[in-house]
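Office hours follow-up: a student asked to see two folded examples consecutively, so here they are.
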Amino acid sequence: MRCLILLLALATAAAAQQELLRVQTDAKTDSYVEVTALFTKPAPSGFLPVRVSIANRMSIARSVDLSFESTNDYGSDGSRTNSSFSFDAPAEKSSQHDILVPLNTLIENSRSGGAQVKLTLGGSMGSGMGSLSGEYATEQPAVLLGEKLFTPNGSTLDAEVAKQFSSYRGSLNPFAAKFDARMMPEDWRAYAGYDSLILTDSEWTAASAGARSAVLSWVRLGGQLLIYSESGSPSGLNLPTDPSFGEVVVKPIAPGLKLNAAQTVDATITRRTPILHKSITEDYSSRWPLQSSFGIQGFNYVVFILILIAFGAIVGPVNLFVFAKSGRRHRLFITTPLISLATSLLLVGLILLMDGFGGRGVRLILMEVRPDNGENAAYLHQEQFSRTGVLTGAGFTLNEAATLSPVPIADDNRWARLTLRNGGSGTGYSSEFIDGKLKTSGDWFQSRSEQGHVLDAVIPTRGRIERAAPGGRPQLLSTFDFPIETLCYRDNAKQWWKADNIVAGTRFQPTQISEADAEKILSGEKARFGERNRKILNNVQKRPDCFIAITTAAPGIDTFKGIKWKETRTILTGPVVQP
């Protein structure tokens, strides 16, 4: 009986994952490589968590090489992201590795699109291929659904989604990816491309402490966590009362675990934080304030046309009748290449003079700082826009735990490379984890181009705004290691206070202002962001006993070193805490 129960449990766990590939290297020793996606549907962006199991029971050491290609369904005209992982397989040893596979950002100019991941196995443990795909409508949230709820509700939820988000190709967009709570990833980046995570309270408590911590970090960044309580009580779940940019909802559920399909789908659509895939597709492709504030650079066609006209005249009649006139035609073999080379050098010189090397850009950051409950972490969204000249290389390494997505920008000038109109235009990205850091190459930054990116990150910090004295008019203290230009504070009595030119380590006493004055300051800051971050800031601006601060001295998340950032403007939010 115990064996039967164990087999049923293992079968249930396997059903909640998606096997990408299993190759038996040696049947006699049962040596194999197995690659399993921990979620059954890839997100439109971010990472896909994958578990690699290697059993080498042979007497000779082997190796395993995994290559992933993530694409949209534009074919060769779309974009793609490549990544690779290598593992040693020591003799007579078994091992297990959890990896994050970088996903191509799904950018579609139609009503629906597909995300695809292809896997190729190489190395001396064998060869093989596998794949995983998912379909998303532009306004469809990416949802993770625990297996306990998926089993009795999956088909009805898919049918409800089909009513609202049927693909333009006529295929079905499944409601959610399935997962096993006991195998949930312990890195918040595994959840970063998803909008909502739904599970029961028993699944939540069955997840590891590391997985729950990762989910709560994702919630702070804007994720929606829906927990259905079988006991009817939310106690003992250790959930935050203030979820920062995200949302935590606990609802009772009957013993049969049946969900109201229409209400469940609607809850993921009418969520507090706008849908990520829709935001990436639409927020930056027109009227992006950051791009507009950077200004437009024209292209001097007249100079180049004049040079080409002069080249045509010199290489033609002047060359023929002056440099290599009758009787000296053999000189054409010398003068023509020299004229062409001189013209090319002149054009290159003009391009370098006009565009220069490297590039310039602007960055805007929305950061939630949580020093409370021992978190000591900052949760940030970074928007960045840049214009490049000539680049001799564009690779870079993300030193922080972060996700990075390119965004389509306005296509009203020749500098734009990624737009909704071209859907990627054959751009290729490469990412590889080295010593835990993501090393990138490819078309993240291109020569003589404009490009936009959004980043999410969780970074450790000891910075905070402290209450320096109890009671009465607020006296505050900043421990951030950079100055703050302006700070607005809303106390528990809903009264607004304001202070300017705040220096770290020095007490300051803000002055009282009206709610209208505070709104005037904050509305100007909100207007700088794209639609999603604008709404996120709007959601948190009136929290009691919390602050919103403005600084241009805080460091951003660094990407390509060749970009000189003209401004990095950061909006800090968070609770005021006791020292």
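And the second, which I mentioned at the end of office hours:
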Amino acid sequence: MSRAHLVLIEGMLLLGAAGLCAASDDQGFVLRGVAQDLPAYFPGYLGNGYIGTLSAPRGTEPTRSYLVGFMDYTPGDMSRPAAVPAWNEVDFSATPPGEGLAWLNRAQLDSRHFDAWQQTLDERAGTLTTSYRYVDHGRATAVEVTTLVSEAAPHLAATRFAITPDYDGVVHLSFPLLLWANHAPRFPLAEMSGPEVEAAVAAYGLTLEPSPPATSDRAAIWYPGYTEVTASDGDAASLSLWLDGKAPQGLTMGMAAAVALPAGATAETVTLQRGRYRLALDISFRVERGRSYAFTKYVALSRAGWGGNAAEDLTLAREARRRGFEQLLTEQRAAWDALWQSDIVIEGDPRAQQVAHSELYYLLASSTPDTAWSPGPDALTPGYTAHVFWDSDTWMFPALLLLHPERAKSMVAFRERTLEPAQQRARQHGFAGAMFPWESDPENGSDQTPHSAIVLADTEIHVTADVAIAQWQYYLASGDREWLRAHGWPVIREAARFWASRATFDAPRKRYDIAHVTSVAESYNDIPNDTFTNVSVARVLNIAVAAAKLSGAQPDPLWERIAKLLYIPMAPDGSRHLPFDPSVPLHGNSDFGGGPLPLLFLPPLDLDASAKLLSGDYAFAVRPMPLAHAAAISMGPAPAIVAAATVGDGEEAAALLAGNLSGGTLKPPFNVRTETATNNVGYFLTGSGGYIQSLLYGFTGLRIREQGLVEAYAPLLPAGWSSLTLRNVSFRGQHLDIRVARDAAGAVRLTREVRTTP
């Protein structure tokens, strides 16, 4: 039995077990957590690219929320996303008179207090619904909580708290805005070496080890930034709260909430509570057995440069309240339904379909259309401190380009918007052009790499090539020459200028080298001629020549010369690439296995190589990679599955996909992608992009080239799949449905159908 068959069998067994904890509907849009999931609860994510927050088991607890590009610039630290006051909390007490109030959010999360617990993430509608029977001092209350972050009105969010009591009497509710304290300890990470960071973490009794189920290994240093509340108030009569805040050395923000009581009902008492950490409306309300009551908290958020202040937010929140929750929900569903008109449909594999939808959901919930913002690897969370890495250009951008080009465009626009700081950085390092940071601040594009990783910032410089390749890919997919001239070409030009100044000419060998780099296989540091870097640089220099001509500019003759003479390490017999310069000693299969060579198969790079050379690279760098290793890292699908599909190894491609689905990087019940199976760095959009790329470009064989959307390699289908359809692909003004299926003779074929309307 082949290892592919073994992995497929193992995957089916694991998925059968997982199915007990996470159920989905037939279309794979709905994920449900049930009581068995509570001991290892991994939060889901709600967002619209501008606002992001996490779920919590009760559906009513306060969770940290973040605004796009709203950063804390505390001196000595690297920038980090500032947690804004928690807007989603609702608390409830059904305690009878004379017993003292016992609050739902403090009740032990066990079967004595919570019965029939279920939480549902509806990815098609962008809503989270939590339901259970809550028992407080003998009083049982059926609870249903629905929360959304609006896709239709990006400044708005809301949570509806509905109860049905089995008793008569008075209940108490609290609708707060929780004002987070500044995180302690704070570390001067912009100044500390790696050993110093480790020592400081240990001195505070903390650890850099992961804490299951949902704490990453770097949580001790990836803590949230701070928002200082500069003004806050509320009004009991109008059931309203509002506040203004500011991040240290950063931007201002605003927030407001408007509470709606059940229709036709009146509160017995309403009290405004104002404290150092809590601004709240506390309400007492008389209920009757068997009747249902819905309370809704409407919230509006803004930050400088996106919206206004607390006064304007209050107007938005009150207007949302006037229109009602059902209207907000209807608009939310319509907005998400419009997004899902572009989709990936898999027939014959419900699990692969479910994961395709969850990966797309997290990408869509974390990106913005028609802006100049780009998400970090872990969405709007403190993971990787919300900085923008090459992950955005190389992993997320290609996953969105064909299905949601308006969101992909925002990612390349971010690089144009932050071109000037990249140019300044190149000058500081003694080079021409633009040197994009390893970790870019999402608001101002400055280099925010912690000092402990400064070697990556200075020498893992392939990021500047990744940026330029994404710009060119957007042009090829859009066909928009005016965009290229005005927006893409300046970025590509400055990247080419950087590489022309960074490469050095070896006169005796008549070649160009790029020395003193860190490979994408990061255990190889300060080496010459990393193959992935050099191949990418040659691609960028050739792109720059083409882009210059299309933009009516004169290309630098040096670009073409360097691209032609840049050394690309090859095996002596020419059968495959070498990972690095031959002078670099290999120390076993580490990082991606085979060094950086699997990344030569990334679709955006679209390596121009013979079938023989591709097969040689695959046989050396991808095929020997243990499946357990490939399955346990989220960045595996794009290079590994695409590589197998590129060389026509359908059995291996299917095995790698099955391993990815069952390898432990998808955390139940909401298919949260973590960076690896063990480190719990969650909402890992890099891995989400890799999975989607394996479907868009791997099994289809499609590549984006000057000639169009080309069937560069033969399409493949895993044995159990009936078909794979890319719905509503957008390419050069056309909208297409692209289908991979077997014909009557059993051969796999790709067909295209042009849509008359999007």
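Two things to take away from it. Residues 1-25 have pLDDT under 50 and may be disordered. The two ends are 46 Å apart (CA to CA).
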